[in-house]
Amino acid sequence: MKVKRPLLRTRSTATVVLSLLAVVTSLAGGSPELPPLTTISDSPRLPGKFVWVDLVTHDAAAAQKFYGGLFGWTFRSTGNYVVAYNDERPLAGIFQRPRAADQANARPRWFGYISVASVDKAEQAVTKNGGRVLAAPQKMPKRGEQAVFADADGAVFGVVKSSTGDPEDFLPELGDWIWVQLLSRDGKKAAEFYRTVAGYEIIQNTLSNRVSDYVLAGDGFARATIRTIPEAKTPQVKPNWLPFVRVKIIGDAVAKTEKLGGKVVLAPKPQVFGGKVAVVTDPTGAAIGLLEWTGASMKGGF
Fold first, then answer.
1. Per-residue pLDDT averaged across 274-294, rounded?
2. Which residues pair with 139 in a beta bridge?
3. Domains, the chain, ordered by start
4. Which end of the chain has less Cβ packing within 10 Å, N or C?
5. Are strands 277-281 and 89-96 parallel, antiparallel or unpaired?
6. pTM, whole model, 2 decimals?
């Protein structure tokens, strides 16, 4: 099968769960009002596609300053939830939560939402295969139905059945989400977990220069990848979904990251995706990927 690139158990784990529960409970309370995933009529649903991303952080103002400076995003606030826009397209949310003294290990983080045909069936698959329900399925005005889970490894993700359909597959512009990767302790096991939840086709990546071990595909499109965390790095790297944003020049984006108060976790290296990818953290500590995308650079990509 030829896969097309989409155009587009510790204390710390427990505190993250509590924080995310607070996020979703607040969102379900009727305020703020989330924007629809698309305003184009008759948009189809694209099960398996990541269609929204949220950031949970203790300092939304610092996050806005960083991402506005790095990607040119603009923001609109509705209470303690901020919607981020790229060229007037809503693409993410930022939720402010206080940093309690007993939650020092609960780092800010991004997590994405997968389009599914049935949120209830996704919930059943999660619990049957060792995952946990962090926020039960609930209906959101203008958005549809969504829920938040943790997989069997503890990585947080959401699912959504949009009431308006999903954003179409398109070539990501600068500042758009372009990819998402799961860091897992057991890539094969994780791939099977998400196959049962979202119906992905699993494709093992056998390229010698790969930076991922498995591709999650749906309807002929690669939707995400999974990388097994090297054993030597398992104490430092926790299982997590990592979203990537398209940037014009990776070196310039890394330099700007540091200028804006962020940190470089993985600097561009020629042996990793041709030196076109980096992982950074914003000033609040949330990790995000940067990717310089060209048609040529994607050959043999993720």
1. 95
2. 145
3. 11-162 (3.10.180.10)
4. N
5. unpaired
6. 0.87
